[in-house]
Amino acid sequence: MAARALYSAHRALNLFLFIVLASFLFNIAFISAKSTIEPCSNADSCNALLGYTLYTDLKVSEVASLFQVDPISILTANAIDVSYPDVENHILPSKLFIKIPISCSCVDGIRKSVSTRYKTRPSDTLLSIADTIYAGLVSSDQIREANSISDPSVLDVGQTLVVPLPCTCFNGTDNSLPAIYLSYVVQLEDTLTGIAFRYSTTITDLMNVNAMGNPSIKAGDILAVPLPACASKFPRYSSDFGLIVPNGSYAITASHCVQCSCGPGNRNLYCMPAPFAVSCSSMQCRNSNLMLGNYTAQQSSAGCNVTSCSYGGFVNGTLLTTLSSNLQPRCPGPQQFPPLKAPPTTVIRDSNFAPVPAPQSDGTGSPAPRSGLIPSSIGSLPGLPPASGPVGTGFSSPSSSSSSSLANPLGSILAALMLFIVAYFLTSFSL
Questions:
Q1: Contact, 246 vs 262, CB < 8 A?
Q2: pTM of the predicted structure, to 2 decimals
Q3: Cα 291 from Cα 305, distance rounded (Å)
Q4: Which domains, and CATH codes, for the chain?
Q5: C-alpha distance across the termini of the chain, in Å
Q6: Of residues 22 and 139, which shows the higher confidence score?
Q7: Taking CA atoms, which of 76, 197, 263, 328 is between 20 and 30 Å from 162?
């Protein structure tokens, strides 16, 4: 009788341990969100973007303070007109989606941004900081590891925390063309098709960049999304070396003296005096009457002789200008500028300021987004990098630098382990 009772207790204990272990493995394999991590081996940094959804109403300056960036850079990255009165104190509405420009560094062999600092408040927890204040761009475990916190339940009010944020560089190119990468947190309603459509890319390109084995995504995943851009050619010794501007937006540089825009519809960086430029060095090209951004064109039988005054970088407080002349097949037309938006006061669904689901057909024959299911070039297959294209490495934890994929092979391994454990326990129960 005692042996039977002992046997029943042993089975009950086995069942309890099985349930606990299975729950733990399930959480690791299927619940943890994943992000794309780019291994690196040098100290070079690049310009990158974060896709951020405001958790409450915030002034432009408050959002800038949250990420330690220039408020003007947030406005220009989102093609918002900086000429509005007191625009830095404009209140942006809760749930607004905006792009945050950041510097992407190489830290411990991995691309990440580590310039953001956050000062804790009385009601803060690591989870609320990660999921609410930084909108899922970072996890509580990542903040804990970055700050060597032994007890995450104890946070001192006013404590300054390093907030590691995801970013990628991929040499500032996508398929050998200039690009800047947006770290995008997947929302519940998102599909890979919808994300590709919104950012004018293909499913194949997104899968290649993020090293995905299949197009499956889930809420909380962080994708690296390549955005077409205009790249500068400033000398390395200039303070704005490496400036790259996403297509359809603009940037203010040279101590707010110069405005550089990209597109729409072309990848030629065009720079001119900023609208509120004050106390700036000379913007006139030497040996010329042309000012920065101006050009003259003279038609001839051989083509069009174009002389232009171009921006060449900001060095020791001085604007570098370059006077160049060349013969072009035809005279250039008016410069196209990105259409600027008024500072938003409300969140408009399916606008440029909010995530959108997959496009739906309205029966009018509207063109469908470019499909990523058919390779755009020979030797480019879904899940494999195209020729000269970047290769992303998906991770469920940014503390690792080994190869993996966004499809989370760790989940497959753990699932197999779970099946083995199930079989073991079922066998033990039958004995």
A1: yes
A2: 0.75
A3: 18
A4: 35-116+164-228+385-409 (3.10.350.10), 249-328 (no CATH)
A5: 17
A6: 139
A7: 76
